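To fix ideas at the outset, we first show an illustrative case, written as a sequence plus integers encoding its fold:
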Amino acid sequence: MRRHQPAIFVLGVPDEADFAFEADNLAQAEKYARAPWLHRSVSQFLFQHNRGCQAGFTACTRAASEAEAAAYRTLADEFAGTTGCFFVAYLGANG
């Protein structure tokens, strides 16, 4: 029997980077995308990697493509032993 795989969504920061994460549905993904803790984490990541993103960035949330979901799952598998965390995968620069 095949195990249910959660849906993967992409948080795209225009002209900066794309990040992938799991959510039950698009509404939940958009809720996560608006969460201050996720904005702080993404802003800090981009700043630390010399992307220079401002804290008040606007991002779009969408369902991940098959390739993006596969990349996310590959990275998530590396951290499978980590529990109690919200995993966000950096998919690369988009701008």
In short: Strands lie at 7-13, 17-23, 60-63, 89-93. The chain has a mean pLDDT of 85.
